[in-house]
Amino acid sequence: MKRWWTIAKWMLKAGIVVWFVALPLMPIYGWFCPWPQADEALRGAGAHGVPLMIGGSSSTQHSWSSAGHVWREEEQRSYVVFPESLRDWKLYTYFETRGSAIEGTEKGVATSAMLLPLFAMWIVAGFFSTRIFRQLRKKEPNQAPEPTPTTVRTPAGQEARQL
Predict the structure, then answer these.
(1) Which end of the chain is more exposed for a tag (fewer CB within 10 A), N or C?
(2) d(C-alpha 11, C-alpha 22), whole Å
(3) What do you get for the CA distance between the two ends of the chain, in Å?
(4) Is 156 a domain residue?
Protein backbone atom coordinates (compact mmCIF):
# COMPACT_ATOMS: atom_id res chain seq x y z
CA MET A 1 0.00 0.00 0.00
CA LYS A 2 2.89 2.34 0.77
CA ARG A 3 4.22 1.83 -2.76
CA TRP A 4 0.91 2.92 -4.30
CA TRP A 5 0.76 5.96 -2.06
CA THR A 6 4.27 6.92 -3.18
CA ILE A 7 3.27 6.53 -6.84
CA ALA A 8 0.13 8.63 -6.28
CA LYS A 9 2.14 11.38 -4.58
CA TRP A 10 4.64 11.52 -7.46
CA MET A 11 1.83 11.62 -10.01
CA LEU A 12 0.25 14.54 -8.14
CA LYS A 13 3.59 16.33 -7.96
CA ALA A 14 4.20 15.78 -11.68
CA GLY A 15 0.69 17.03 -12.49
CA ILE A 16 1.24 20.22 -10.51
CA VAL A 17 4.52 20.93 -12.31
CA VAL A 18 3.06 20.14 -15.75
CA TRP A 19 0.05 22.42 -15.14
CA PHE A 20 2.28 25.23 -13.85
CA VAL A 21 4.45 25.04 -16.98
CA ALA A 22 1.65 24.34 -19.49
CA LEU A 23 -0.67 27.21 -18.57
CA PRO A 24 1.65 29.95 -19.86
CA LEU A 25 2.37 27.87 -23.00
CA MET A 26 -1.30 27.52 -24.00
CA PRO A 27 -1.45 30.92 -25.78
CA ILE A 28 1.34 29.71 -28.08
CA TYR A 29 -0.82 26.74 -29.08
CA GLY A 30 -3.73 29.14 -29.61
CA TRP A 31 -1.62 31.28 -31.96
CA PHE A 32 -0.43 28.28 -33.99
CA CYS A 33 -3.87 26.66 -34.16
CA PRO A 34 -6.39 29.51 -34.19
CA TRP A 35 -10.12 28.92 -34.08
CA PRO A 36 -11.67 31.73 -36.19
CA GLN A 37 -15.22 30.94 -35.04
CA ALA A 38 -14.15 31.51 -31.45
CA ASP A 39 -12.57 34.88 -32.26
CA GLU A 40 -15.74 36.03 -34.02
CA ALA A 41 -17.97 34.82 -31.19
CA LEU A 42 -15.81 36.53 -28.54
CA ARG A 43 -16.03 39.84 -30.38
CA GLY A 44 -19.80 39.33 -30.70
CA ALA A 45 -20.03 38.73 -26.93
CA GLY A 46 -18.37 42.06 -26.21
CA ALA A 47 -14.87 40.81 -25.46
CA HIS A 48 -12.68 43.32 -27.29
CA GLY A 49 -8.93 43.01 -27.11
CA VAL A 50 -6.32 40.32 -27.55
CA PRO A 51 -7.66 36.82 -26.76
CA LEU A 52 -5.09 34.50 -25.18
CA MET A 53 -6.08 30.84 -25.03
CA ILE A 54 -5.50 29.37 -21.58
CA GLY A 55 -7.31 26.05 -21.89
CA GLY A 56 -9.26 23.76 -24.10
CA SER A 57 -11.07 20.48 -24.08
CA SER A 58 -12.92 18.08 -26.29
CA SER A 59 -15.25 15.26 -25.33
CA THR A 60 -17.31 12.68 -27.15
CA GLN A 61 -20.06 10.51 -25.72
CA HIS A 62 -21.64 7.50 -27.42
CA SER A 63 -24.49 5.32 -26.24
CA TRP A 64 -26.47 2.56 -27.85
CA SER A 65 -30.02 1.70 -26.94
CA SER A 66 -33.14 0.33 -28.57
CA ALA A 67 -33.62 3.79 -30.12
CA GLY A 68 -30.27 3.46 -31.88
CA HIS A 69 -26.90 5.09 -31.67
CA VAL A 70 -26.85 8.42 -29.81
CA TRP A 71 -23.74 10.58 -29.81
CA ARG A 72 -22.65 13.99 -28.61
CA GLU A 73 -19.42 15.86 -29.22
CA GLU A 74 -18.31 19.06 -27.50
CA GLU A 75 -15.26 21.24 -28.05
CA GLN A 76 -14.35 24.30 -26.07
CA ARG A 77 -11.56 26.78 -25.52
CA SER A 78 -11.14 29.23 -22.69
CA TYR A 79 -9.64 32.67 -23.21
CA VAL A 80 -8.35 35.60 -21.25
CA VAL A 81 -9.03 38.73 -23.29
CA PHE A 82 -6.62 41.61 -22.60
CA PRO A 83 -7.34 44.30 -21.50
CA GLU A 84 -11.03 43.34 -21.04
CA SER A 85 -10.30 40.54 -18.53
CA LEU A 86 -8.24 42.85 -16.35
CA ARG A 87 -11.24 45.14 -15.84
CA ASP A 88 -13.86 42.51 -15.03
CA TRP A 89 -11.73 39.44 -14.07
CA LYS A 90 -13.68 37.21 -16.46
CA LEU A 91 -12.74 34.14 -18.44
CA TYR A 92 -14.45 33.68 -21.77
CA THR A 93 -15.20 30.15 -22.96
CA TYR A 94 -16.30 29.44 -26.51
CA PHE A 95 -18.01 26.09 -27.07
CA GLU A 96 -19.45 24.09 -29.94
CA THR A 97 -21.73 21.11 -29.44
CA ARG A 98 -22.80 18.62 -32.09
CA GLY A 99 -24.77 15.44 -31.75
CA SER A 100 -27.39 13.13 -33.11
CA ALA A 101 -30.09 14.79 -30.95
CA ILE A 102 -28.97 18.30 -31.98
CA GLU A 103 -29.76 19.83 -35.32
CA GLY A 104 -26.69 21.57 -36.69
CA THR A 105 -24.18 22.89 -34.20
CA GLU A 106 -24.86 24.71 -30.95
CA LYS A 107 -22.37 27.55 -30.44
CA GLY A 108 -21.96 30.01 -27.63
CA VAL A 109 -19.75 32.02 -25.34
CA ALA A 110 -19.92 31.56 -21.60
CA THR A 111 -18.29 33.91 -19.13
CA SER A 112 -17.18 33.16 -15.62
CA ALA A 113 -15.50 35.20 -12.90
CA MET A 114 -12.83 32.55 -12.38
CA LEU A 115 -9.76 34.46 -13.53
CA LEU A 116 -8.67 35.52 -10.04
CA PRO A 117 -9.06 32.00 -8.51
CA LEU A 118 -7.26 30.51 -11.53
CA PHE A 119 -4.40 32.96 -11.11
CA ALA A 120 -4.23 32.20 -7.37
CA MET A 121 -4.12 28.44 -8.07
CA TRP A 122 -1.33 29.01 -10.59
CA ILE A 123 0.70 30.94 -7.98
CA VAL A 124 0.19 28.11 -5.46
CA ALA A 125 1.22 25.57 -8.12
CA GLY A 126 4.37 27.64 -8.70
CA PHE A 127 5.16 27.55 -5.00
CA PHE A 128 4.77 23.76 -4.88
CA SER A 129 6.71 23.34 -8.13
CA THR A 130 9.72 25.15 -6.66
CA ARG A 131 9.48 23.01 -3.51
CA ILE A 132 9.36 19.86 -5.63
CA PHE A 133 12.44 20.91 -7.62
CA ARG A 134 14.31 21.77 -4.42
CA GLN A 135 13.48 18.34 -2.98
CA LEU A 136 14.75 16.69 -6.15
CA ARG A 137 18.00 18.66 -6.00
CA LYS A 138 18.59 17.67 -2.37
CA LYS A 139 18.10 13.97 -3.15
CA GLU A 140 20.68 13.93 -5.93
CA PRO A 141 23.80 12.02 -4.94
CA ASN A 142 26.48 14.38 -3.75
CA GLN A 143 30.17 14.07 -4.44
CA ALA A 144 32.27 11.97 -2.10
CA PRO A 145 32.15 13.41 1.40
CA GLU A 146 35.15 15.30 2.72
CA PRO A 147 37.33 13.05 4.83
CA THR A 148 37.21 13.89 8.50
CA PRO A 149 40.27 13.57 10.70
CA THR A 150 40.22 10.70 13.18
CA THR A 151 42.38 10.02 16.21
CA VAL A 152 44.16 6.68 16.32
CA ARG A 153 46.33 5.27 19.12
CA THR A 154 49.75 4.08 18.03
CA PRO A 155 51.28 0.95 19.52
CA ALA A 156 53.51 3.14 21.68
CA GLY A 157 50.40 4.71 23.28
CA GLN A 158 50.68 8.01 21.49
CA GLU A 159 47.79 9.67 19.73
CA ALA A 160 48.10 10.36 16.03
CA ARG A 161 45.67 12.11 13.70
CA GLN A 162 44.88 10.49 10.39
CA LEU A 163 42.84 11.62 7.45
Answers:
(1) N
(2) 16
(3) 45
(4) no
